[in-house]
Every structure is written in structure tokens, then in C-alpha cells.
Write a structure and sequence with these properties.
Elements lengths: L2 E4 L1 H9 L1 H16 L8 E3 L6 E5 L2 E7 L3 E9 L6
Parallel strand pairs: 1-5
Antiparallel strand pairs: 2-3, 3-4, 4-5
Length: 82
């Protein structure tokens, strides 16, 4: 399993969206444990080296190395890309 790191922005977003935080964390953990389980929900964003994980109407933006997943931001799909 890869180590999951949260930026300050991502941690604040989880507190803001506390009603969905448990589901979002579980999907991130599933991806860290077995990336193939969430492969259909992960896409590379064009033009930048960031990946996007879809969790219902929420999006998790993250970067990934061989050992870590760094969660950059979390938010509703309409506002996360601004």
C-alpha cells in the first residue's frame, strides 16, 4: 500500500465536506491499496501531471509516485477545476 499524504488545502476540504469525508477517504484508500480497483474512476488531466479520482459528484486531485499519493485538493466537480 502506498502512503497517503494530504495537503493543507485537501485536509480543509475534507473538513468542509464532512458528510462525504468517510466515502472519499475510503475510495482513496482503495486506490492506494489496489489501483486496479478504481482504474475506471481515475484519469490523467490534460496539460498537467495531475490525476483525478471520481467519487460520486466529488473529484479528488492528486499526484502519485512509486511510494506515495499526495492529495492536492478535493471538491465538487463543478468547482474543483477553477
Amino acid at each position: 500500500m502506498k502512503t497517503i499524504l494530504y495537503t493543507v488545502t485537501a485536509a480543509r476540504a475534507l473538513r468542509t465536506h464532512a458528510n462525504r469525508a468517510k466515502l472519499i477517504r475510503s475510495k482513496i484508500t482503495q486506490y492506494a491499496t489496489n489501483p486496479a480497483s478504481q482504474a475506471n474512476n481515475v484519469k490523467q488531466l490534460s496539460g498537467v501531471g495531475i490525476l483525478r479520482l471520481r467519487v460520486g459528484d466529488f473529484r479528488v486531485l492528486f499526484s502519485e509516485t512509486a511510494e506515495t499519493i499526495t492529495i492536492l485538493d478535493i471538491g465538487p466537480r463543478g468547482r474543483i477545476y477553477d
